Amino acid sequence: MDRHRKRYPAGHHRSLGMDLGELAAVVTELTGDHLPEDWSEKILTFHELLCAENKIHNLTRIVDFEDYLIKHVLDSLLVLRCFPELAESHYTILDAGTGGGFPAVPLAITLPQLEIVAVDSRGKKVAALQRMVQKLDLLNVTPLQANLDELQRDPEYRHNFDFVLVRALGKSEKVFRLTANLLMPPGGKLILYKTPHSLASELKELEQRLRQSRKYPLRYRLSEVYQLPQEAGERQFLWGEFSPVTHPREN
Length: 251
Prior knowledge:
- By secondary structure, the protein is α/β, with parallel strands linked by helices.
- The chain has 9 helices and 8 strands.
- Strands 1, 2, 3, 4, 5, 6, 7 and 8 form an 8-stranded mixed sheet that branches.
């Protein structure tokens, strides 16, 4: 029996969309390798846990199973299309503004060699994520309640991460300012999950900020535009590499 064949939660009525087996095939292509034996089971269990917690804490608007597979799981893992090296080695990763655990949990399930700190400023969401992570037995995810501005001043986390991933945390300029000193120099990468529409309005402000301040030795780049299946939206990554700098202050 195919361990990644489709399986749906009790009471679920399938709509037109991607099933678990189809997603497993796509993700296997993204990683370039076999998936963990328990990958499908954990992806399904995570959905069940997320739906249960969501009734109490409003973690996400996306609860339909196929929408969850495409708009949460696959979208979280699309970063592997742009940065395949994530699947090839051990890295320390910060998921800034993790909310319900995206992209932290799909990445941790898919690539167990990664060490991920999943940060959010909202205590109830972090507590919910902690419960889900424990039930999923994900030893490579550490939920943490913290403010990013304070976190990058903390010696334990300052210049500590190979990658900082940001999927939903506001405008690009603000994110750059709040995460610069969390990256490990040289070569630490900040990766923002964006859309072509959001970037059209944010790049001008970001470029202006970078011109005004010498405290951001950054060269930002844009990925190609990736189309999610079933016309579920577009994804584009904005990323840059940082060097060690003095903690940035507002001009």
